[in-house]
Amino acid sequence: MEKRNWMKWGKIGALAISFVGVSAFADTAEEVEEKIEALLPKEGVSLQELQTITARRLEFRLEGRTLRAAGAIPERCAKDADMIVLPPEEGKHLVMIRMPKCEDSFRPVKGEKMVAASSVFPRRELADHDGKVFLRHLRAGDEDTEARNAVPELLRDARGAEMVIVSEATRAARARAERIDELAKRVDRLCRSGEFEGVGQEIEAARDLLGDVSALLDKKDDLEKKRLHANLEKAKNAAEAKKAFDSLVEAADRGGWDMEPIEAAYVKKRTAILRATVQDVKEGEGAVAAAEKALVEWKSELQGMNSDLYKANQRELAAGYYDLARAARDSSPARSAALLEKAKSMGPKSAHDRLDGEIAESYAEAFKECVKGKSPQKAAKCQKEFAKKSQTAADRVKDRLEKKAAKDEDAQEELQGFM
Fold first, then answer.
1. Fewer CB within a 10 Å sphere, N or C end of the chain?
2. Rounded to whole angstroms, how far apart are CA atoms 203 and 221?
């Protein structure tokens, strides 16, 4: 009896050294025994222990978020065995396998009876949480010590693949990202081809995906405006400019844009084209008739667009007619005079005296050309067509100068010079 007690206390002493430390010899036997009992036992099996116990015949399968066991385990290990799901950690699903009847001996017994693992371990639903499945076990020891928590071990399926759960939130985010990526590709193709109406339709259709799309639509409008204005700026002639302007008007109607800057840009471009056309005539590289036709068409279009725009550009039109008149003076005085008449009708009143003087001179030159080598009868026709118009223009200048001279002494000198 005494020998057994001695052996008992010998074992307790050995355990005390193992678990509590040498200082425990200072405690009473009762205190040592209490400390031993206070230590928590090992809980769960490690991956190596699990593989040893089951002779690698236990398998795991993940179906959605459901983890189930397959294969077989020894019948002697089945009692009180369980598969427990622990709270997940960042990027990890934690599972503990308990086999209390086998944890004292992990060696498989040859020829022992096996039972289906599915009948022992219930299926477990894992959390809707992103992460891989890990096996966790706890070492024996004090609950508060970090040493008790063994590092989780990655649990693989029967094929050796990692078992991964992707949460619904992540799936939704990925699906949304894929839809946004597809939308971006479609929008990019439409933008490259200039189909901005289609871009707007794509964005509107994706409201459920994008939420408030007002900023995107504004960005689309800005991009479309830049593209269309660039097309207008690149126009080389009136036809190309008109086509670009019509596209801008169509887009403005669709998007509710302000027309004023669009019209201003168009007028500026057409004016530049017109100036270039007139300049070609002045340099002898263009036909007066073609340039005059362009002036007439632009004047008509301006009048149809906006009366204010027409009024604001009358002087520009007058300048165009005047430049053409000067270019045509040597080759066709009669055409020059007619162009000067048009320039006068749109120019400022302050220029009327000068223009009427040039009109009178041009008609006089036209009369001289007309009567050369003509019979008296045909010369009379020239007189009616050109000389009379020249005199009428000169009379207008004379009348205005006489009115000025009556009020201003300086104007008298100008009148004498004209006479």
1. N
2. 12
- φ/ψ of 408, rounded to 5, equals -140, 120
Domain assignment of residue 192, yes or no: no
C-alpha closest to that of 397 among 336, 316, 331, 340: 340
Of the candidates 339, 393, 386, which has an alpha carbon nearest to the alpha carbon of residue 363? 386
Helix, strand, coil in percent for the chain, rounding step 5: 65, 10, 25
H-helix or E-strand spanning residue 133:
strand 131-135
Amino acid at 61: R
Element spanning 99, H or E:
none
Domain limit, last residue, from 131, 166, 201 = 166
Q: What is the DSSP string of 24-53?
A: GGGS-HHHHHHHHHHSBPPBS--HHHHHHH
34/55 Cα distance (integer angstroms): 38
The residues facing 59 across adjacent strands are 70
- Coil, strand or helix at 156: strand
Residues 341 and 357 in one domain: no
Tell me the two tokens of residue 183.
């939308």
Query: Are residues 334 and 376 located together in one domain of the fold?
Result: no
Tens digits of pLDDT across the chain (419 residues) = 443 343 333 433 444 434 444 444 445 555 545 544 557 878 888 999 888 888 788 999 999 999 999 999 999 899 999 999 999 999 999 999 999 888 776 777 788 899 999 999 999 999 999 999 999 988 877 666 666 778 899 999 989 999 999 999 999 999 988 888 888 888 888 777 778 788 788 778 878 777 777 777 778 788 888 889 999 999 999 999 999 999 999 989 988 899 999 999 999 999 999 889 888 887 776 788 888 899 999 999 988 888 888 888 889 899 988 988 888 888 888 888 889 989 888 888 888 888 888 888 888 888 888 888 777 777 788 888 888 888 888 888 778 777 765 566 565 555 445 44
What are phi and psi for residue 100, nearest 5 degrees? -60, -30
Kindly report the number of other CB atoms within 10 A of residue 205's CB atom: 12
Q: Are 132 and 163 in contact (CB under 8 A)?
A: yes
Number of domains in the chain: 4
Query: In angstroms, rounded to a whole number, what is the distance separating the alpha carbons of residues 276 and 287?
Result: 13
334 and 269 co-located in one domain: yes
| Strand-pair category, 66-74 with 82-89 | unpaired
Alpha helices, H only, 206-349: 207-210, 214-234, 238-255, 259-282, 288-305, 307-312, 314-328, 333-346
Query: Is there a contact between 209 and 202 (Cβ–Cβ < 8 Å)?
Result: no
Same domain, 34 and 64: no
